[in-house]
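Forgive a beginner's question, but would it be possible to get any protein sequence you like and the tokens describing how it folds?
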Amino acid sequence: MTEKNNKGTTLVWLGLLGIVIAVGLVAAFRLYTEGHYLFNTNDVIIWSLPLGVYVFLAITSSGLTLLAGLPLFFGLKQYEPFAKRMVFLAIATLCGAFVSIGLELGNVPHMIYIMLSPNFSSPIWWMGFIYSVELVVLIVKFWKMHTGDWHSSFSRFLGAASFFLALAAPLMIGSVFGLTESRVTYFGPVMSIYCLLMGLLSGLALFILYSGVVEKVTGTSLLLQQAGPFQEIVGIFRYVTGVVVGFTLVKFIIEGSTVVPEFLVYNKFAHAFGAWQGLHTEVILGLFLPFVLMLIPAVRKSRGGQMVFSALITVGTLAMVMEILLAGQSHPVGPKAEQFPEFISYFPSVWEWLVFLLSVAVMLLLYTLGEKYLKLEATPAEAKSGI
């Protein structure tokens, strides 16, 4: 691809993102002025698409940060060529998550108020606090890397702090659901473990997909010089996917064999994306299928195959998050059960879709600007030499 064509493609891409962001800002203005009724929520379905997008982007950011911990915390230098890009992707993805949760709350100042009025017994408060601190730590860490300071004591401390924050954050998101005793399908420690695994999975998927897209768009052999370490990351991706597949199968077996009344009701729910033989469609297409593709060496080693199975898992993980979010709320309990049907259906309103698009567009805009201006491929040696 010539430089002129590349520049033209970039301008078209930035223009498209600008249009999406402008439309999203109109939606944000309406939400601030007219209220939460623009969402297709009610007294039973209170967590909708924007919250699902927040959870997905937040745990994905944590997954990227944990992946960056391989060189920055564990000192595995072969992965240093990817470290700066991983940290920046984690920052941009978390910014997209905060856009989504800010609009889901209906007012950005609400987020500030929550932070300034702590409830230390609330996992929701801890979730917001941990992710806010993680964002600050990641920004400072990225700045230190960008200025060439990768291995000072303070920079190493930031690498360790970001790793442990990224480890704690998905666990805390899981506890938001897992402590909900009135919703048996949420309740328990499994949800925290699942969120951590899903964060690792989606973080790896996004990094591999993004790397392939950048290579295709720029027309450069971005990954050839690091072919060995990159294939090792693909290998890690395969193992993590296998763990999630096993965990998911155990989860399905438990849900399908229990006689707890709430699970018997849950299994009657018309699942958001459909199901086959009790297995959710998004799990079959967004988890099991890509895992099978990874087991084929020719597919696993080809750039096209990597982009296909990482894209399937990225979309599938988002769908799985939404499935869990909606299925757990679908059955009215308590007094609400008297005035609603046995199951509540849900489909996002146009305003919820616009919040989703705005969050993703902000994230992609940051990706694009970072790739263009911030030398995300830099390594410690290059930073010292001023390259």
Notes: The chain has one domain: 18-218+228-363. The chain has a mean pLDDT of 88. The beta strands are 275-276, 279-280. The first strand starts at residue 275 and ends at 276.
